[in-house]
Amino acid sequence: MIILVLNCGSSSLKYQLLDMKDEETYSLVAKGLVERIGMDSGHLKHTPTGGDSFELTTDIPDHTKGIQLVLEALTDARHGVLKSLTDIDAVGHRVLHGGDVLFKSCLVTPEVVKQIEKCCDLGPLHNPANLMGINAVTANLPKVPQVVVFDTAFHQTMPDYNYIYGVPYEYYEKYRIRKYGFHGTSHRYVSKRGAQFAGLDLSNSKIITCHLGNGSSISAVLNGKCYDTSMGLTPLDGLLMGTRCGSIDPEVVCYIMNKEGLTPSQMSTLMNKKSGLLGLSGVSSDCRDCDAAVEAGNERARIAMDKLTHDIIKYIGAYAAQMNGVDLIIFTGGIGENNAVMREQVCRNLEFLGVKFDSQANKCRGEERVISTSDSKVKVAVIPTNEELVIARDTMNIVNGLE
């Protein structure tokens, strides 16, 4: 089955074309990125597997046009990989927020689209863009089935005492104010793959998954199901991130707003786009830049990186306590897969859990690797995430009527 996987952002879209034989037998046919949608000089980069990349700079006013360009690139006589659009059997979409109604992957229907629209208040930057992608595929490939896979879905198994907030219960009833969690597709993939790789029975396991990147979250996965996660109603909660502040005393919000005369929208922008590593270091939102600044003696960068490291340690410790132990700790995401120094700093603080760290094995980037010693009570592994594969698998199974 030929499946096109789309991940639409507010001004960009990433895509992969996969040939799925079954869940474990598949091949990547092509991938690409469309950027600067709705801006001057839109850009497409299309890369066929085993072939040269093709790039195009042109006006891309909306996602409909962006997806048209993707479909043209896939079928182009020179750099295309399909004979015609009829070769595409299904399209899978990453959707940020499904609320507590859309709690698993499903076929796109008018009712599903309405529910995604209702969740736009909860995911104002992502859900509208996800809907644009769905509508653009409907316009270009009206007969091709579409499946939506939600970032929030994996976390819907959390018990009520882990997802509820301590505000009056009426706000949960009226507005569904609760923890939803994000990066669910990644946490779902790496927990399952990590268990296989480490030789654990997923259905009888205690796993902590650390998705660390520009946006970061940590999840407690108990017997294969999410038990708790660090992000909340929105992706702002939890760890310090690239530009997000993470967890703070809620009264800080009111205090800064009163002192600075900020509107709610301005305060949201400050916490989401001007805080985190960027706001603390004054250098960059990129962990690599902050690491370089630390090496150069930048004290603010050191504070920022130390805070991120200790936020990770704190959540791992908390989730180990919640699950009454841990069998496996997984690092994934851009930082988790590539920053060996941070992995070591975190693991050196986990000896109380029984972690014995293998510094030699830790010398890796972007590859599956156990980085704990053979006699470590708790296994630690690096597992590169593959959200597109999860989306393709769900799409294949749903379209084939297997789920």
SS elements, strand count: 14
- Which class best fits the helix and strand makeup? alpha/beta
Strand order, sheet with most strands: 5-4-3-2-1-6-8-7
Average pLDDT metric: 95
Compute the number of helices: 14
* Most strands sheet: 8 strands, mixed
Uncertain runs with pLDDT below 50, 5 residues or more?
Answer: none
Report the span from N to C terminus.
16 Å
Give Rg in angstroms. 21 Å
Write up this protein.
This protein has 14 helices and 14 strands. The longest helix has 24 residues, at 299-322. The chain is globular and about 60 Å long. β13 (369-370) and β14 (379-382) form a beta hairpin. It has helices spanning 63-75, 110-118, 127-140, 160-163, 169-175, 184-198, 250-260, 264-273, 276-281, 287-295, 299-322, 333-338, 340-348, 387-399, and strands spanning 2-8, 13-20, 26-35, 42-48, 54-58, 90-95, 106-107, 146-150, 206-211, 217-222, 225-229, 328-332, 369-370, 379-382. It has an 8-stranded mixed β-sheet, with helices on both faces. A 6-stranded mixed β-sheet has the order 11-10-9-12-14-13, with helices on both faces. The protein is 37% helix and 19% strand. α10 packs across α11 (299-322) and α11 crosses α13 (340-348). It has 403 residues and is of the alpha/beta class.
